[in-house]
């Protein structure tokens, strides 16, 4: 079963939308205001939790729908599993990236879909008009087309799709509460598994990867590389309209705020950077070195839903010791130390 009790705003965080609502040209402001209104409506929705069918097979099952620029979900069915490509780029991108994310979890962690019980993966494209976001709503992936000036269509980025689907994995495992440090961990886990999915699909080592989230989303009119950088939090973008990336890389610059559920999209830069440093120090492929430690942590009963950074770090360190040995445990310990987090005893 996939819970829907933790409400999220999608891959584009509230602080970016608020900045655009104040500083973007009038036509973009209108797109952003419509996006914010749609997000608020989604926050109020009470969705029924999704349970996989008892007879669900251990195989990939995808269905893509076209919302037709409305907010009525799921929309018209346009492509199902094993059907030929559609005459619609966004349909095919959503179909392909749902498949890549499913295969990553299956082939790397032997996980049977998001809930580990064969949940079918559905996606709706062309949601709303110029909707500047993409999200997992507990039942399906939903993609906006972007405004065309700041954001491209949200089907463009595999790590964004994997990020959002990983929220479903977190709901089905650790259930990290979407508030303060546990909420920042929730966001960080999605970023970490999002970049690992993209690295796995591209066959990239940690050293070869760009460690960016949403690099394909920003148009050429934006001065920036992506929405977030795990390698260099706080440097993903610096643009007169979009603003400057506010993510800290260490606890020395932790942001105290009541906005965005306690800064979940901002302070996630700290555990993000810890993972990056550990993966780089370990070398090779991140999904083979540090990735299994993070995945084991999500499934570890010692991790509580209200975990702070210290507890999460402590459970990662324990898993590294228990499953990977002293060398990797020392690497994980050093990575947390580098970002100013002292692992708690677990």
Give the radius of gyration: 19 Å
Major β-sheet, in short? 5 strands, mixed
Uncertain runs are 1-6, 46-55
Shape: globular
Q: What is the average per-residue confidence, as pLDDT, rounded to a whole number? A: 92
* CATH topology name of the largest domain: Elastase, domain 1
CATH top-level class of the largest domain: Alpha Beta
Active site: 164, 265 (proton donor)
Cofactor: Zn(2+)
InterPro entries: Metalloprotease_M4, Peptidase_M4, Peptidase_M4/M1_CTD_sf, Peptidase_M4_C_domain, Peptidase_M4_domain
Domain Peptidase M4 C-terminal: 174-341
Notes on the structure:
By secondary structure, this protein is of the alpha/beta class. The protein has two domains: 14-172, Elastase, domain 1; 180-338, Orthogonal Bundle (Neutral Protease, domain 2). It contains ten helices and nine strands. The strands form three sheets. The chain has a five-stranded mixed β-sheet with strand order 2-1-3-5-4, covered by helices on one side. It has a two-stranded antiparallel sheet with strand order 6-7. A two-stranded antiparallel ribbon has the order 8-9. The two termini are 27 Å apart. Extracellular zinc metalloprotease. Belongs to the peptidase M4 family. Residues 174-341 form the Peptidase M4 C-terminal domain.
């Amino acid at each position: 079963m996939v819970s829907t009790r933790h409400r999220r705003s999608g891959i584009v965080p509230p602080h970016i939308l608020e900045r655009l609502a104040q500083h973007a040209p009038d036509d973009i402001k209108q797109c952003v205001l419509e996006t914010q209104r749609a997000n608020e409506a989604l926050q109020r929705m009470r969705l029924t939790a999704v349970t996989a069918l008892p007879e669900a097979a251990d195989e990939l099952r995808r269905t893509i729908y076209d919302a037709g620029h409305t907010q009525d979900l799921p929309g018209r069915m346009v492509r199902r599993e094993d059907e030929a490509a559609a005459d619609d780029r966004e349909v095919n991108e959503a179909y392909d990236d749902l498949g890549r994310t499913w295969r990553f979890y299956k082939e790397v962690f032997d996980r049977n879909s998001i809930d580990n019980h064969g949940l079918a993966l559905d996606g709706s494209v062309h949601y709303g008009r110029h909707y500047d976001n993409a999200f997992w709503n507990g039942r399906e992936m939903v993609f906006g087309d972007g405004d065309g000036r700041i954001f491209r269509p949200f089907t463009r980025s595999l790590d964004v799709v994997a990020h959002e689907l990983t929220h479903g994995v977190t709901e089905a495992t650790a259930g990290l509460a979407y508030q303060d440090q546990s909420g920042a961990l929730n966001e960080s886990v999605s970023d970490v598994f999002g970049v690992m999915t993209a690295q796995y699909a591209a066959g990239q080592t940690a050293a070869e990867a760009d460690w960016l989230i949403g690099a394909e989303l920003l148009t050429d009119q934006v001065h920036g590389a992506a929405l977030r950088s795990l390698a260099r939090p706080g440097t993903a973008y610096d643009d007169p309209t979009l603003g400057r990336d506010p993510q800290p890389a260490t606890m020395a610059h932790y942001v105290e705020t009541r906005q965005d559920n306690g800064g979940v999209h901002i302070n996630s830069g700290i555990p993000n950077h810890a993972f990056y440093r550990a993966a780089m120090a370990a070398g090779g492929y991140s999904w083979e070195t540090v990735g299994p430690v993070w995945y084991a942590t999500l499934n570890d009963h010692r991790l509580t839903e209200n975990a702070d950074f210290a507890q999460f770090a402590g459970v990662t360190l324990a898993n590294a010791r228990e499953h990977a040995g002293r060398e990797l445990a020392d690497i994980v310990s050093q990575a947390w130390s580098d970002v100013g987090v002292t692992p708690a005893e677990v």
